[in-house]
Amino acid sequence: MTTMDIETEVVALYRQGKNQGTVDRFHAEDVETVEACAMPGIGQVQMGMQAITGKNQ
Q: What CATH number does the domain containing 21 carry?
């Protein structure tokens, strides 16, 4: 799968409102995200698939 293939699929999922689909399809179990600033009740850093899934719901 090329970078362009991934980009095309990610954009398609977002346009369909399937944000969780991108997480399920393209993120590893040990994913870590860092936001520019802490979000209320979530914090600045989320680690692991469960934290990322919770952030997107």
A: 3.10.450.50
